[in-house]
Structures are given as C-alpha cells and as structure tokens.
From TrEMBL:
<keyword id="KW-0408">Iron</keyword>
<feature type="compositionally biased region" description="Low complexity">
    <location>
        <begin position="680"/>
        <end position="691"/>
    </location>
</feature>
<dbReference type="InterPro" id="IPR054351">
    <property type="entry name" value="NADH_UbQ_OxRdtase_ferredoxin"/>
</dbReference>
<feature type="region of interest" description="Disordered">
    <location>
        <begin position="621"/>
        <end position="691"/>
    </location>
</feature>
<dbReference type="InterPro" id="IPR006656">
    <property type="entry name" value="Mopterin_OxRdtase"/>
</dbReference>
<dbReference type="InterPro" id="IPR001041">
    <property type="entry name" value="2Fe-2S_ferredoxin-type"/>
</dbReference>
<protein>
    <submittedName>
        <fullName>Molybdopterin-dependent oxidoreductase</fullName>
    </submittedName>
</protein>
<dbReference type="Pfam" id="PF04879">
    <property type="entry name" value="Molybdop_Fe4S4"/>
</dbReference>
<dbReference type="InterPro" id="IPR036010">
    <property type="entry name" value="2Fe-2S_ferredoxin-like_sf"/>
</dbReference>
<dbReference type="InterPro" id="IPR006963">
    <property type="entry name" value="Mopterin_OxRdtase_4Fe-4S_dom"/>
</dbReference>
<feature type="domain" description="2Fe-2S ferredoxin-type">
    <location>
        <begin position="1"/>
        <end position="76"/>
    </location>
</feature>
<feature type="domain" description="4Fe-4S ferredoxin-type">
    <location>
        <begin position="176"/>
        <end position="204"/>
    </location>
</feature>
<keyword id="KW-0479">Metal-binding</keyword>
<keyword id="KW-0411">Iron-sulfur</keyword>
<keyword id="KW-0004">4Fe-4S</keyword>
<dbReference type="Pfam" id="PF13510">
    <property type="entry name" value="Fer2_4"/>
</dbReference>
<feature type="compositionally biased region" description="Low complexity">
    <location>
        <begin position="651"/>
        <end position="667"/>
    </location>
</feature>
Length: 691
C-alpha cells in the first residue's frame, strides 16, 4: 500500500494508483476533462493540476508515491486549473454552458466560478445525426480523445479518429463518411465518456451518463445474453429514459453493447401487449387477468381429466428469473403431476451442465472471468463473443491486442479470428476429434502436469490409450484442420503459464455436445490449469441467454429436478417430495421437440412421413421395432379429437440402439477438488464423432 497526504489528510492507496486517485479518495474534486477511470490516463487537458511536494503536476498521470504531500487548495494552482478550463470553454459556442447543459465541462465551470458567457465562440462545424443512437455536435468537441480511446481501448472497434489540426481538430468516424455508415457497433461508450455533450444519445436520455447519479435510477441486470451486465435504468415519468452501464458492474465495468445500452424502445411500443387477449370465434379480444387465468386453469383441468397429467406440458424460459423457472416446474410436477417441462437451456446449456459435472463435479465454469482475463493464452472455441457476447468479446479482444496468445477454433471467420495466432476451422460436427488431437499433442510432447494428474485426476491410462489413436495427421483428415495448425495450437496452449478455455454454443449445440464439453475439459485437466493451482484458469462457457444456468439449476427440465437430481433417482425424488409435500412423477417428461411432435401426431396434423420418421416405437421390453405405423390423418386436418394433443398413446424411444450409428467410444477422466479426494474411475462416454 502507498501512504501519502492530500490537503493534510492521510490517504492509503494500492500500488500503481495516481495522484488523481489519491485526491478522489480524500474526497476532493478536480476537473479532469481528458480522463476517464475506464481508460489509460492521457494528461492532455491540464485541468487536474495539483501541487505535489512543491511541484505543479497533472494529477491523472503522476504516480502516487509514499510520503508525498499533495495540495489541491493552493490558490495559485486553483487559478491554474480555472484558467485551463476557461480556455477550453472559450472555444465553444454558448449552448455548451447553458443552464440546461449538464455535461462534465458545464458542471466544472460552475464549480470553478466560470460564467456561462465564457463560451461565446461562433463555430459552425455542423452536426451528424445520421445514427439512430448517437448524435454528434462538432461545435462542442474539445478534441480530448476520450471517445476515440473508449472505442479503441475498451470496445476494440477503432471506429473513431481525430481529424484536422490545431484548433480545428474534431472527432469523426474513421471511414470519413456519416456516422451511420462507419464501423460503429453502437456500444454507447463514446456517448458515456464525452465530457462536453458533443456526443449524445437522442431522446429523453440525452445528456445522461454514468458519471451522474440520478435518484430516479433502478439497478438491474441486462436481460439479453448470458454475460450478466449490470445496468442502471433511469426512470422518468414512469418511462425508461436511459439504460446506463454501471461502472461498478463486476463484468461490464461501465460498458455495454447496443442491446443493453439502447434496446429498450420496445417498452413503449404501440404494438406491445399490455393486457391478456382471449381468442373467440377466430379473433382475439381483450380480457381481464382474472378471466384469462380462469380460462387457463379450466383448460388445464379439462386436459388432465381427459388425458391424464401427461396431457399437459409447459415450456419455461431461460430469459425468466430463477424464481419463475422454479415455480413453473413445481407447478407441473406437484399440481399437474407430470415432468413435461423443458426450456431452451437444454440445448445450449444442458450439455455444459452434464459435461462439466462429469469432469469437475459442478455444472458451471471453473473460474471467474476476471481471472480468465489475466490468462497468457486464450483458447476460444465455438463462439463469436464479439457479436454474441460483445462486452466479454471486447475484453478478450483487448487481451489479444495486448499480446496474449489467442487460439480460435471455429469453422467461421468470427470476429476474434482475425487477431488469432492460430485459427482452427474444423468441419461442423468434428469437435470431439479436434479436442482429442490437441490432447494427443499435449500428452505426446510432455506438456502435461504429472503431479496434478497423479494427485487430482483419474482415468489417465484409458484416456492416453484413446489419444494414441488420434495423432494430428488422422485428426486433420477427420476435421479438415491442418495437422501443423493443430500442433501449433496445442503447443501455444501447453507451453503457456496460465492458459484458459472459453467456449460457446458451437460446442454444445451438437448431437455430441456433451462429448465435446467433456473432451474439451480434458485440456485444462491435462495441463493442471484448473482447481486453484495458479497454472491456468480452467474452462468457461459463454451462455446463450441471460439465465440458462438458472433455468437448469431450478429444474425446468424434463429429466432433472432442482439441483440436477434425476427424476428417475428415488433419493432425489424423496428429497423434493419432503420439501414440496407432494409426490414427484418418476418418469422423465417430454422435451420440446417431442411435445410438438406428440401434439401434431395426436391431432392428425402431420403427414404420414412426419409421423413415421419422427417417432420410434418401443415395446414393453424396451426393444425398438422401428418406425411407427403411418397415420391416416391428412396434413393440416383440423383436430376434432377430445383427447389431449400431447397424449400419443405410443411411448417414444429416446436413444434406441438401432437409431444411432456405431462409433468409437471416448473416454474421459475426472478432476478431483483436492489431492487425494475420491473420484470415479475411468468413465465411458457416449460415442464420439470420430469414424
């Protein structure tokens, strides 16, 4: 820690802090028009001058050193700060300091006693209002460069630049044309950091930034992707005026993407449903909530009486909260009496939950993203975070630009691929083979951690036997990725001091999604780069929606209870029954595709081809005799049957032996949480995608 004095008060700061940090910690206020805590200091505006041991220095670029005495209230240095701010304001038009202006510059002038008439320049450089979310008033630009640095150093888009020279210097899109035609990704970073109001968002949020702390703000979490950005929603007159990224957000750190920052217009859309609608005689009519809920309850009750509990199914949502998902599955299981509940997380997250649980004993990533960001080698697999998870993508991009080794494995030329040291482009569906090839090189060239594997992993012998059959040359033939690139990628990962793996839906949304997660997890286990060893940061999934983890944790799945207990496990059911006071059905429910298929088959709304190919029948002994008999119902024939559309009368064959091609088995070994901890023996996985 660094100890110094500011205006006579002792201040203690962590190493690497600046004098501006010390002044702020002491509770003093300084103008700093070229500074933003999210950016590297520039020291170009000279508005944060202080006296440090008798020297006049810019506080933002001067390191805090032990024993230093800092004076911010000295009259001479205060006048210097005032003159610097007044000089900047004098080059701006009158509306820069108008009473309605609440920019950082306008508030600094008021604090320093600089009158509004100081801004009296007659500049007519014009405006750019071509962009739907960002407007530029060139006359207010002071060329501080904060917007340019935000675009490059935080977002990594490099869409902005400073043009012209001297007093004519002004920010402009780097492409030279209108803002709307530039490379801007609408993250809003430039809007938030601009100190003069030269760059603002149109509408009721104009002038609102994270620097301000309005009382009418509500803290929330972004509801779009799975990053989990913290937002402050400014509400005025019962309407959203702005969505501001919270600077203390643990993941986004005052940054956002276009969705989190600007995509709230639908809240006030005239097309948004604001009341229940009930269909009668082919048309929808407004209804009260009581009427709508009664109609739903009556329909559910009739379906259960007619077709039994399994005549009802519910699709929950990975965009809903934990509480909502929990209540949906509880309603189906304890009130209706069925396990027919599912949500989209089974496609994008359930393979991760199963694979990571098999490898590490837990259904989530192994390390927080702040740690992952400090890795010296990043392997990004099956993900396009620059577009799908822009805030995380921006942070990963900054690490790559700073020199961190980057391996991208994706058939597509995703955003990070252009900055990658190695871009592996496997054929779709060959992920398992690719991961085996990388693991082969790690084992073959001695880039594993023998002590870690001996003390904290099991099944190495079985895995080594399998990997011996996957040299890079054979894997290249399967995946299409060159053998030399496979070796290069494995060596980058294997020789790094602190590697990390980040993966997305390109790994999980496959027939062998769980296999892919488990075999990918082998890489950090082989390297000993997991489990708090200090030699790496494990493996982290990027979620598709904002609460796929929670939806799965809460048991909104046809075969799993809250906490991932299987419905077929009597002990897991007994635990749930003890809490709920109601019996839990023992048979797994229908998945979403099976729900629709069952409904269509029962209603006769499918062609014979659909019915014949979509369902395999099983006899009472569990054998799979083949396709179901063809139905006689015509396509699009109205459903006149009274029985439930979900009651097929024919059990479905989830994974009959004859329905999947024979393939080589894969093997995996499991990491144990501590040396000597008991772990399972070598486990045979479902077949891999290698021929």
């Amino acid at each position: 820690m660094t100890r110094l004095q500011v205006d006579g008060a002792p201040v203690e700061l962590p190493a690497g802090a600046s004098l501006l940090d010390a002044v702020q910690a002491a509770g003093a206020a300084l103008p700093a028009l070229c500074h933003d805590d999210r950016l590297r200091p520039a020291g170009s505006c000279r508005t944060c001058l202080v006296r440090a041991d008798g020297r006049t220095v810019a506080a933002c670029v001067t390191p805090a050193t032990p024993g230093l005495t800092v004076d911010t209230a000295d009259e001479d240095v205060r006048n210097l700060r005032r003159d610097a701010v007044a000089l900047i304001a004098s080059a701006l038009p009158p509306h820069a300091l108008a009473d309605s202006a609440h920019s950082e510059l306008a508030e600094a002038c008021r604090a320093l006693g600089i009158p509004p008439h100081t801004a009296a320049a007659e500049v007519t450089r014009g405006r750019d209002e071509s962009h739907p979310y960002v407007q530029l008033d060139r006359d207010l630009c002071i060329a501080c460069g904060r917007c340019v640095r935000m675009c490059s150093d935080v977002q990594g888009t490099f869409a902005l630049t400073l043009t012209e020279r001297g007093a004519d210097t002004v920010v402009a899109p780097g492409t030279g044309g209108p803002w709307a035609e530039s490379d801007c990704v609408s993250c809003g970073g430039c809007v938030d950091t601009c100190p003069t109001g030269a760059i603002t968002q149109p509408g009721p949020g104009q002038g609102l930034t994270t620097r301000q702390t309005p009382e009418d703000r509500v803290r929330t979490t972004c509801g779009y992707c799975g990053v989990g950005c913290t937002l402050d929603i400014v509400v005025r007159e019962n309407r959203v005026a702005a969505a501001l990224p919270a600077r203390d957000g643990p993941v986004n750190r005052g940054h956002a993407c276009v969705k989190g920052r600007f995509a709230y217009g639908y809240l006030g859309s005239a097309e948004r449903l604001t009341e229940p609608l009930i269909r009668e005689n082919g048309a929808l009519r407004p209804a009260t909530w009581d009427e709508a809920l009664s109609r739903i309850a009556d329909g559910l009750r009739a379906a259960v009486l007619d077709g039994g509990p399994d005549a009802v199914a519910a699709i929950s949502s990975a965009r809903a909260t934990n509480e909502e998902n929990y209540l949906v599955q509880k309603l189906l299981r304890t009130v209706i009496g069925t396990n027919n509940v599912d949500n989209c997380s089974r496609l994008c997250h359930a393979p991760s939950a199963a694979g990571l649980t098999a490898s590490f004993g837990r259904a989530g990533g192994t390390d927080p993203f702040d740690d992952v960001e400090t890795a010296d080698c990043l392997m990004v697999v099956g993900a396009n975070p620059v577009e799908a998870h822009p805030v995380v993508g921006a942070r990963l991009l900054q690490r790559a630009l700073a020199g961190t080794s980057l391996i991208v494995a994706d058939p597509r030329a995703v955003g990070l691929a252009r900055h990658a040291d190695v871009h592996l482009r496997p054929r779709p569906g060959t992920n398992v083979a690719l991961f085996h090839g990388l693991a082969h090189v790690l084992v073959d060239e001695g880039m594993t951690d023998p002590d870690f594997l001996r003390d904290r992993a099991t099944g190495l012998d079985g895995l080594a036997e399998l990997l011996a059959d996957h040299p890079p040359e054979r894997v290249a033939g399967i995946t299409g990725a060159p053998a030399d690139d496979i070796r290069t990628a494995a060596r980058l990962y294997g020789r790094a001091e602190r590697p990390a793996v980040v993966y997305g839906l390109g790994v999980t949304e496959h027939l062998h999604g769980t296999d892919g997660v488990r075999t990918l997890a082998n890489l950090p286990i082989l390297r000993g780069a997991v489990g708090g060893t200090g030699r790496g940061f494990g493996i982290s999934p990027l979620r598709g929606q904002n609460n796929v983890q929670g939806a799965s944790d809460m048991g909104a799945l046809p075969d799993l209870l809250p906490g991932y207990g299987r419905v077929t496990d009597p002990e897991a059911r007994a635990r749930a029954e003890a809490v709920w006071g109601r019996p839990v059905p023992p048979a797994p429910g229908l998945r979403i595709p099976e729900m629709f298929a069952a409904a269509l088959v029962e209603c006769g709304l499918v062609t014979p081809l659909f019915a014949g190919l979509s369902h395999e029948r099983i006899d009472q002994e569990g054998a799979c005799p083949g396709p179901a008999p063809r139905r006689t119902g015509r396509a699009n024939e109205p459903c006149t049957r009274r029985s439930s559309p979900l009651r097929t009368g024919v059990p479905t064959c989830r994974r009959p032996p004859t329905c999947r091609p024979a393939r080589n088995p894969t093997r995996i070994f499991r990491w144990c949480s501590s040396p000597g901890a008991d772990g399972p023996t070598t486990t045979s996985l479902p077949p891999a995608s290698t021929p």
